[in-house]
Design brief:
By secondary structure, this protein is an alpha+beta fold. Helices cover 37% and strands 16% of the residues.
Length: 73
């Protein structure tokens, strides 16, 4: 029978848990590095305050979030 003291057992379990969390973090990090794409139809330019913003409603008229003016594509 292998004898191990309590502090070594806790350290071993802690290291196994830490290694598992590191592997999970690394795998999730790779999925987040995927490239995001944005449709050019959703990018709007305000003609009054020259502010660029994203509006996903895809309408012909949009309201600028900065100055409140109406903009047309």
């Amino acid at each position: 029978m292998i004898s191990i003291d309590f502090s070594m057992a806790i350290a071993g379990y802690f290291l196994v848990f830490l290694a598992f969390m590191l592997i999970v973090w690394f795998l999730n990090r790779r999925e987040k590095d995927k490239e995001l794409s944005l449709d050019p139809k959703m990018i709007w330019f305000c003609s009054v305050c020259t502010y660029n913003y994203v509006d996903t409603k895809q309408e012909t008229i949009s309201i600028c979030p900065r100055c409140g003016s109406f903009n047309k594509k």
